[in-house]
Write a structure and sequence with these properties.
Structural class: alpha/beta
Strand content: 15-25%
Shape: globular
Order of helices and strands: HHEHEHEEHEHHHEE
Oligomer: single chain
Number of strands: 7
Radius of gyration: 17 Å
Largest sheet: 7 strands, mixed
Strand order of the largest sheet: 3-2-1-4-5-7-6
Length: 248
């Protein structure tokens, strides 16, 4: 089990992680986009652009964006790949409602749709996607290895997985500042902006706990992916992982 799987938003709540994560994101959905920009000082847009670059290089026809949230990555891909069919899937109806509204305004003519679904039981046929993406969502999975196996299942042979995930900076000079910011500033800001006082304490805990770098690649390889690789951005505060479903 990855350590992040045991980190839950509401520590005194006996429910499964998936249920807690769904309710947490329903709760913070109205503040989510604002907090994302504030927490990363807008750099998340640059990180997301790097993920879109990887996807666009494949010229995919069918893309599935898992843990799609409010649709930022799905919309960015639609802008870059207007002929692609993009499906965003998320546990949280509250987040998806915002995503649908944003997509209707930002890319009204694109083939972007959203549906409620669980990453551990994707409502999709085998071998139905050319690319599967996840942005800032893997650490919220109740079973990371199981999520990767599901994404492998829906990818076509040769298809690409692109995962963008927050991570702990590798630089010993940057890490103390990062720890202060994520453990002190972000939870305090979250309490001011969102009515959910637990959500923004869960965030730094889940980032610190989730597998990173080569450990994350090992989880992908164990699920059946090949040619797994990663790149770190901004002193290691974000990591882009790529992997492929083998051709046979």
């Amino acid at each position: 089990m990855d350590k992040a799987e045991s980190i839950k938003p509401y520590k005194d709540d006996g429910r499964a992680k998936g249920e807690q994560v769904r309710d947490m994101f329903d709760s913070i959905a109205p503040a989510y986009d604002f907090m994302n920009r504030a927490m990363t000082m807008g750099i998340d847009r640059i990180w997301r652009r790097r993920a879109v670059d990887c996807v666009a290089a494949r010229c995919p026809a069918d893309i599935v964006d898992v843990a799609s949230g409010t649709g930022d990555l799905a919309i960015a891909m639609a802008r870059r790949l207007p002929s692609a069919r993009i499906l965003g899937i998320d546990l949280s109806d509250g987040m998806l409602e915002i995503g649908r509204l944003k997509a209707s305004e930002a890319v009204p003519d694109a083939a972007v749709s959203f549906m409620t679904g669980d990453c551990l039981d994707l409502p999709l046929a085998d071998s139905s996607a050319d690319v599967v993406t996840v942005a800032y969502g893997v650490r919220n999975f109740a079973d990371i290895a199981g999520g990767y196996r599901e994404m492998l299942r829906v990818l076509r042979p040769g298809g690409m997985l692109v995962v963008l995930e927050l991570s702990v900076p590798t630089s010993p000079l940057v890490r103390p500042l990062y720890n202060f910011y994520t453990k002190r500033i972000i939870p305090a800001a979250g309490r001011l902006v969102s009515r959910d006082t637990s959500a923004y304490s869960y965030l730094p805990e889940s980032i610190a706990a989730v597998a990173q770098g080569s450990d994350m690649l090992a989880l992908m390889a164990e699920a059946g992916f090949a040619d797994c690789a990663f790149r770190r951005f901004t002193f290691g505060a974000c990591t882009l992982y790529t992997a492929f479903r083998p051709l046979s």
